[in-house]
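Our preliminary data section would be incomplete without showing what the modeling component actually yields. Below, a chain of 246 amino acids is followed by its predicted structure, encoded as tokens that our downstream tools consume directly.
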Amino acid sequence: MIDLYFAPTPNGWKVSIMLEECGLDYTPHLVRLSEGDQFEDAFLAISPNARIPAIVDHDPPAAWGADPVSVFESGAILLYLADKTGRFAPDTKDHRARKEMIEWLFWQVGNQGPMGGQLSHFRNYAPSDQRDYGFKRYLGEYDRNLGVLENRLENRDWVLGESYSIADMLIFPWAFIAKPLGASLDAFPRVADWRARIKSRPAVQRAIDLFKGDQNRGQHRADNNAVLFNQSAASLRAKSKDAPPK
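Predicted structure:
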């Protein structure tokens, strides 16, 4: 059994997609970001960066010992689950393929994801009188990353070639929400086709429907929710509670 600490965001979807694709038995726990669940002591013990997603695996591989294993950060979680199941990643003995996979995982968590996250903030959550510069800046960076992905998908169906992998799962969510970010895939037909292929997978549909009614659709913004936005290190500690994550 795996406990998934989750909110219905692109980063959360990365892990729910992998769990659904693998058919692993898991229990989802909604982390109410707007209410500060992510700052509770019990959650910080699992995810010290106070971010979702995170997992606790109560049945880890034998090599890890008998104690439960907690993992935070979406890329690390997908790598852990791929190694646990032996699925959706190149064999560890295929060093070149493994190297390419790691490159694209790092590209996503260091480039596409952060640029998409900042674009989302300035498109949807920043004060209306402070949006323009940030939106233009991060829309340009988001589009640049779409161009990188478009080039990568030339003459291949999936990021790593012939096989759907955790690289696709990690990258997909931030391409999936291009329209709500104010971006367009019209100039990136290979990305659009790749996105459609992934979106059509039943496991992906189940994953993105998880806690769908609890999505932040603009009701929690920087000007009305100081728990979700504009945190300082001191305020993180002040908001920490003794209760376990919900």
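Residues 40 and 46 are 10 Å apart (CA to CA). Strands lie at 2-6, 26-30, 54-57, 69-72. Preliminary results of this kind motivate Aim 1 of the renewal.
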